[in-house]
Amino acid sequence: MTGTDFEVEIKTRDEDRYVFHSGHGVENPRKVLEEEIKLLKNLHVETTSAVLVVDSRIGIEGTVIGDRARNGRVMMTSSKARETLLSELNRRRNQPEASTEVMLTSDIAEDSLRKYNTAVYIPRTGDPLHLVKQKILEASKTLRDGGRVVIASSRRTVERLKEYAGELGSFDETIDGDVSILEIEPDDNSVEEPFEVSKLKHSIKGEKVKFQVPSGMFTPEDMRRVEMMVRELSAAQGKLLDVAVGPGLAAIYSRGLYEQETVSVSQDDYMKRFAEKSASINGKDLEAYVDEGLHIFDSRSFDSIAYNAKGRDRRFRQNMKDCFRVLRPSGTVFVVHSKDIPAEQVLRQEFSSYSVRRREGNLQITSATK
To answer: Taking the complete model, does pTM exceed 0.85, yes or no?
Structure first.
């Protein structure tokens, strides 16, 4: 565990004690625990229950439920590689009694091979409402007859979900402080899928690309980042690894503009799916993966890497070490980042040379050579 990680220790009503590890992206133990603890406090499961955990962040719900349903089974799911990794780490650390697994997926209904008595779900802050509804619908399709979906979130979020809950079946609400627990018993999971897709097109240097993204998950600034990056990749050599630029858009544009061999990787399975879809729409072949830490490429190497440092990117230094590891000698990483990230300082320390290639407003492209 690095110096930027922390441990949180909780004691449940069952008198069991657990220790969980987390990293950047989950900043405050109290914030992490509020909805999870309220959900666990108000949730009853039989010892033989089969339970599905949707969007497991660090494995708290699945681990505790795994001891309550000690003769049953628990499946924790997430579309994000880092959350999946942390959930698995904490599952191994705490060793719940039930058969407990972790699965990386962005399509629960498609990838789940078994049925469950209960599905529990704490929506991520910032997820579009249509995506939250879609996950509720997918969870409902994994249930046995008489099963239920239990959601814990802010009272405001749950209020926005009640109409949709009524379309799926009957529901009850329990309010515990600032958190609301919504328990849905679906009787109709044939309702129309609420998932919304934005169909977009954009031209860079005369290369027109059509692409699709989940609505609300790709902003005008994201497009600016893609365009800045693609213009600088004319200087990239050899095989290119696109790390979360678009959904695979740096790879798609570079293949068309510069005839580069390209590979795409994201930390979110939704972005992988849409990278593959957008490549197909444009008649391009694309290898696309979802991974945390680029470990999937430990036996491969690249001449160039395009890296998108979004937000504050608290793991930026480690991510640059990962890029350095999979670069060939004299290879170059191109980083698009906000000026709030100390990219130049980190790259100066980790690479043999670096240069600022482009500045536009608060965004900057910095490159570094191994």
So the answer is: yes
Mean of per-residue pLDDT scores for the chain: 92
Residue 173: enclosing H or E segment and its boundaries?
A: strand 169-176
Class of domain 197-369: alpha beta
> What is the distance between the alpha carbons of residues 303 and 305, in angstroms, rounded to a whole number?
7
| Res 22: pLDDT | 76
Under a CB-based contact definition with an 8 Å cutoff, are residues 281 and 217 in contact?
A: no
Q: What is the DSSP letter of 170?
A: E
Residue 207 φ then ψ, to 5°: -90, 110
Asked if the domains at 6-186 and 197-369 fall in one CATH topology, the answer is: yes
User: How many separate helices (H) and strands (E) can be counted in the chain?
Assistant: 11, 18
Note whether 166 and 232 are within 8 A (CB): no
- Structural contact between residues 297 and 239, judged by C-beta atoms closer than 8 angstroms: no
Q: Give the C-alpha separation, 130 to 107, whole Å.
A: 14
Q: Give the span between the Cα atoms of 349 and 4, in whole angstroms.
A: 19
Say yes or no to pLDDT of 153 above 90.
yes
Contact (CB, 8 A) for 133 and 161: yes
Tokens read off for 60: 């708290």
User: DSSP string of 115-167?
Assistant: -EEEEEE-PPTT--HHHHHHHHHHHHHTEEEEEEEEEEEEHHHHHHHHHHHHH
Q: For the chain, what are the domain ranges? A: 6-186, 197-369
Q: What is the CATH number of domain 6-186?
A: 3.40.50.150
Structure tokens at 243: 């790390």
pLDDT in the model for residue 310: 86
Amino acid identity of residue 302, one-letter, is F
Return the minimum-mean-pLDDT range out of 77-91, 215-229, 302-316, 332-346: 302-316
* Nearest CA among 200, 223, 195 for reference residue 281: 200
Residue type, 268: D
Q: Which two tokens stand for residue 228?
A: 């800045």
Angle at 22 between CA 20 and CA 23, to 5 degrees: 165
DSSP codes joined into one string, 3-70: TT-EEEEEE-TT--EEEEEE-TT---HHHHHHHHHHHHHH----TT-EEEEES-SSSHHHHHHHHHTT
State how far the Cα of 72 lies from the Cα of 352, in Å rounded to an integer.
54
Q: Return d(Cα 324, Cα 305) in angstroms, integer.
A: 9
